[in-house]
Amino acid sequence: MVEYNDATLDTLFHALGDSTRRGMLHELAGGERTVGQLAEPYAMSLAAAAKHIQVLEGARLVHKERRGRMHVCRLEPQALRRASDWLRYYERFWNTRLDVLENLLRDADAKASSTGAAGTRAPRRTPPPPKGKRS
After folding, report:
1. Which range is least confidently modeled, 37-46, 80-89, 91-100, 112-121?
2. Which of 1, 53, 60, 111 qualifies as a cystine partner to 79, CB 3.0-4.6 A?
3. pLDDT band with cut points at 50, 70 and 90 for residue 34
4. By 3-state DSSP, what share of the chain in percent is helix, strand and coil, each rounded to 5?
5. Residues in a beta bridge with 64
6. Chain-wide mean pLDDT for the chain?
7. Is the model's pTM score more than 0.70?
8. Angle separating helix axes 46-58 and 7-16, nearest 10 degrees
9. What are the structural domains of the chain?
10. How many CB atoms are closer than 10 A to CB 25?
11. Distance CA 51, CA 10 (A)
């Protein structure tokens, strides 16, 4: 069973909930990047980028290390496993529900076509013209 009351998942989904951080993760999927390289596409300061990276580090999605004067970041994809497991559980849940709905609709269509009721609807009524206006 998947834990739904887990602070780790809260932190992870909070980190993933921001489009800038998701973009940074996308960049890191291509390899290591400096903080400056991660900040560049967003025209943000290094301090602002560092705050985003700090959130990603807190979720254990990113590891940052200092190399001389540069801070280099790399993706830590194993942290995504918990989110993936959580999502997979609900994917199975909804797939099961949608399969049941599909079968119900298929049965209803088969029943309607066997009774000859398929495609028969009451004729649509046109509303009367407004009072006081004549064509």
Report:
1. 112-121
2. 60
3. very high
4. 60, 10, 30
5. 73
6. 86
7. no
8. 150
9. 1-113 (1.10.10.10)
10. 20
11. 18
